[in-house]
Amino acid sequence: MEGESTRQLKVAREIQKDMAEIIRGKGMAAYDGALVTVSGVKVSPDLSVAKVYVSIFPSAKADAVMKNLNENVRTYRGELGAKVAKQLRIVPELVFYLDSSLDYVEHIEELLKK
């Protein structure tokens, strides 16, 4: 079967919702005033790895925020574990990726202003 299984998609949606809550709960100050949004999650077929895509506004703070997320990945995994303990046997490893589609939108808006 091609694509993601229903289980993968359900788990991905749940992780996206939970990670968004965890990140929002830390407040913008934790991310140097940047707005961090979980734009998507992809889960491996065995549910052991979750790729968490985040968009960061303003994009100038992206490097610092990504560094923060990656340095604290164990903390995030622990907090996620507390939320998904009932649904998942194992808490997936989290891998953060920068979703640059927001940069693209910003770039288009800049071009339109010219």
Automatic annotation (TrEMBL):
In its UniProt record, a GO molecular function of this protein is: ribosomal small subunit binding
Query: Keywords on this record?
Result: Cytoplasm, Ribosome biogenesis
Which PANTHER family would you find in this protein's record?
A: RIBOSOME-BINDING FACTOR A, CHLOROPLASTIC-RELATED
What is known about its subunit structure?
A: Monomer. Binds 30S ribosomal subunits, but not 50S ribosomal subunits or 70S ribosomes.
- Could you tell me which InterPro entries the record lists for this protein? KH_dom-like_a/b, RbfA, RbfA_dom_sf
Which is a Pfam family this sequence falls into? RBFA
* Any Gene Ontology biological process: maturation of SSU-rRNA
- Cellular compartments annotated: Cytoplasm
Coiled-coil zones: none
Q: Which family does it belong to?
A: Belongs to the RbfA family.
**Name assigned to this protein:** Ribosome-binding factor A
- State any GO CC term: cytosol
What this protein is reported to do is described as: One of several proteins that assist in the late maturation steps of the functional core of the 30S ribosomal subunit. Associates with free 30S ribosomal subunits (but not with 30S subunits that are part of 70S ribosomes or polysomes). Required for efficient processing of 16S rRNA. May interact with the 5'-terminal helix region of 16S rRNA.
Per the record, the major location class is: cytoplasm
